[in-house]
Specification:
The complex is a heterodimer of chains A (364) and B (273).
Chain A (H helix, E strand, L loop, with lengths): L3 E10 L2 E10 L5 E5 L6 H9 L6 E6 L2 E2 L5 H4 L1 E4 L11 H11 L4 H14 L15 H13 L5 E5 L7 H18 L2 E6 L2 H7 L2 E6 L2 E6 L1 H6 L4 H6 L6 E8 L2 E4 L2 E3 L3 H8 L4 E6 L4 E3 L10 E11 L3 E8 L2 E8 L9 E6 L4 E5 L12
Parallel strand pairs in A: 3-8, 3-9, 6-7, 7-8
Antiparallel strand pairs in A: 1-2, 1-4, 4-5, 9-10, 11-12, 11-14, 12-13, 13-16, 14-20, 15-19, 16-17, 16-19, 17-18
Chain B lengths: L9 H26 L3 H5 L12 H8 L2 H32 L5 H10 L5 H14 L6 H24 L4 H10 L3 H12 L1 H17 L2 H6 L6 H9 L6 H21 L1 H8 L6
The chains are: A alpha+beta (364), B mainly alpha (273).
């Protein structure tokens, strides 16, 4: 169990800033997910924490001790790699024992520890096999085993599930979360999958262009994204954005008349001019009886219907823009038909049309 | 991997491959056949395909000092190849994991030494060998063959090492292993096929080398020099030379055959991920 404090961490490759002034302090045993699109700096950040990449400036502390200039082994961190990076010529047992041998544990201690870890991960039967004789899921477990066998201070995982099929990914996701909760080891987890971020992390760091856009709990990030990037990146399908004019506390434009309440309503009440309105597809539902121009509605023509099983997703042309809506399947939808959608008034978002920051976020 | 669809061109390609293979193999087959002929049969025109085979030439080889030349050949090949591998692995490893400044120039310098015509270097090599009293010794051949093969070996082994995914190097670093342990316990086992093909190539080059051997040694020398002695007896011993040449070829063919799997893997390492 450890507390990791990252202060003003920077990494530049020539003129390119891969990580820009990152500040983050974890709690003991916290599961932090770094999420963002390719090239956002999440993996570079993790590699700097691991000691595999040197920082241009800034400090990394583990339990108060600066590890910025320490080698990976001195930091006592363990890492699970995207491609597992198991040693192909060694058996599962030898793979797990390697880091203990390096640390000069006795043979008996190594044996006890490897078998204990293998039991915890249910890979005892695989100990004598080589990685080439394992399935993707089994390799993933072995990679986890190799990381936890020496009980590190920090656990680093770099997109460990990206090579698994969808079903296995969901299973392993739950297992990793359970394992980390049980071991109470502070964990950094890198992913580009927003669903993994939402389901796994105590806190999420959403990154773009090397800058941490928002660091918060999954729920807060979903409910109150600080800018259009976070709003669009977290949540699937992504949030709809509509340019709107503020008129008497409502957000209007051809095709919609949105009435926010709660904090967004209050913030809009103090503003004039234009904003970017944001509404998540799952917060829209059809209102068959409503007519266009009713306050609190969006209206347009259905362009596409995508069945999702119990729900459907539709694309609606609203004032020349396509928006999506997701709701329970019903008889009222057909391609080419007009539809009026009602939004949840407490789940409306508004962003400054210039800075693209939420009207709720403090000014930079 | 998707297999290419069969096309009408395939039988033609197969035929061409076989023709190519036969053209390459024919001289070797002729050499082996000739080695079992009498000297008269060997030079008869038109060439005889059917003859009474004889082992006389092979017997005569062993009446000469074949064994001592073969011993030197084996010693020089094995020792120089071992030294080459022992030196090339750490050099290639250093160039892979922690490239020194201007490592590309260094790598090019290594290989550029192979571009110099060896005839241009023979006089200084000869003089140095004479100064250190190394002429006509196995040691001088071991030294020159090691330096002859080292650049190629470093170049090849490095190319195998850079094919190892970066994650493996990172995993070793996180596991905390030192450089020596990393090289010996992780990296070297991973490039074993490549190492085998490198060693085999170096061994073949040493085994076959003639120019340096004939200039630096006389009585304590390798089999190609032994073969040359048969050519300079005044009379043409075609069948006899063919028998010596066949014998010299056997170890190379056997080693190549045994290492075929790793040789093919080694030489195409990294071509397909």
């Amino acid at each position: 169990m450890s507390v990791i404090a990252i202060e003003n961490l920077n990494k530049s490759f020539g003129a390119f800033n891969a990580v820009d002034n990152l500040d983050l302090t974890t709690e003991d045993g916290e599961f932090v997910v770094l999420v963002g699109p390719s090239g956002c700096g999440k993996t570079t950040t993790m590699r700097m924490i691991a000691g595999l990449e040197s920082s241009t400036s800034g400090t990394i502390r583990i339990d108060g001790e600066s590890v910025t200039d320490q080698s990976p082994s001195e930091r006592d961190v363990a890492m699970v790699f995207q491609n597992y990076a198991l040693y192909p010529h060694l058996t599962v047992y030898e793979n797990m024992a390697f880091c203990l041998k390096v640390r000069k544990w006795s043979k008996d201690e190594i044996d006890t520890q490897v078998r204990k870890t293998a039991k915890a991960l249910d890979i005892e039967a695989l100990l004598e096999r080589k990685p080439s004789a394992l399935s993707g899921g089994q390799r993933q477990r072995v990679a986890l085993g190799r990381a936890i066998v020496r009980e590190p201070r920090v656990f680093l995982m770099d997109e460990p599930l990206s090579n698994l099929d969808a079903k296995l990914r969901i299973e392993m996701r739950a297992e990793i979360v359970k394992l980390c909760r049980r071991l109470k080891i502070t964990t950094f987890y890198v992913t580009h999958d927003q669903l993994e971020a939402l389901t796994m992390g105590h806190r999420i760091v959403v990154m773009k262009g090397g800058i941490a856009q928002q660091i918060d709990t999954p729920q807060n990030i979903y409910d109150t994204p600080v800018n259009t990037f976070v709003a669009g990146f977290i949540g699937s399908p992504p949030m709809n954005f509509l340019n709107a004019t503020i008129e008497n506390g409502t957000l209007v434009a051809p095709g919609f008349n949105l009435v926010p309440n709660g904090p967004v309503g209050t913030a809009i009440g103090h503003r004039t001019g234009t904003v970017i309105a944001g509404v998540r597809p799952e917060h829209l539902a059809p209102r068959p009886a409503a007519v266009p121009n009713t306050p609190g509605t969006i209206w347009g023509c259905i362009e596409l219907i995508e069945p999702l099983g119990s729900q459907i997703m539709i694309q609606v042309s609203v004032g020349g823009h396509l928006i999506s809506a997701q709701f329970e399947r019903g008889p009222e939808v057909a391609v080419g038909k007009d539809i009026v959608l009602v939004h949840r008034p407490d789940a409306l978002h508004a962003f400054d049309s210039v800075s693209e920051r939420s009207v709720l976020a403090p000014a930079n | 991997m998707n297999r290419r669809r069969a096309s009408a061109l395939d039988p033609l390609l197969t035929l061409l491959t076989w023709i190519g293979t036969l053209i390459m193999f024919l001289p070797i087959a002729w050499m082996i056949l000739t080695s079992f002929k009498t000297e008269e049969d060997a030079v008869s025109y038109p060439p005889k395909l059917f003859f009474t085979p004889t082992l006389d030439h092979y017997r005569r080889i062993f009446e000469n000092d074949f064994v001592s030349f073969a011993t030197v050949s084996v010693l020089v090949t094995v020792v120089s190849t071992l030294i080459v591998i022992l030196l090339a692995v750490p050099a290639a490893f250093a160039l892979t994991v922690r490239p020194v400044p201007k490592w590309r120039d260094i790598l090019f310098f290594f290989i550029s030494t192979k571009m110099m015509p060896i005839a241009a270097g023979i006089v200084p090599i000869y003089l140095v060998a004479r100064t250190f009293d190394l002429l006509n010794t196995s040691a001088v051949l071991i030294i020159v063959y090691t330096s002859m093969n080292l650049p190629l070996a470093i170049w090849m082994i490095r190319s195998f090492m850079v094919e190892i995914p970066r994650d493996v190097f990172d995993a070793v670093a996180v596991d905390g292993a030192g450089r020596v342990r990393e090289m010996v316990q992780i990296i070297v086992p991973l490039i074993k096929p490549g190492l085998a093909s490198t060693a085999l190539l170096c061994a073949i080059f040493s085994w076959n080398e003639f120019f340096l051997a004939v200039n630096l040694t006389t009585t304590v020398s390798t089999l190609p020099v032994f073969l040359q002695k048969f050519l300079s007896f005044g009379k043409l011993y075609t069948a006899q030379v063919a028998a010596v040449a066949t014998l010299i070829n056997i170890p190379v063919v056997v080693a190549g055959w045994l290492a075929q799997k790793s040789l093919t893997r080694g030489l195409t390492f990294g071509a397909v991920k």
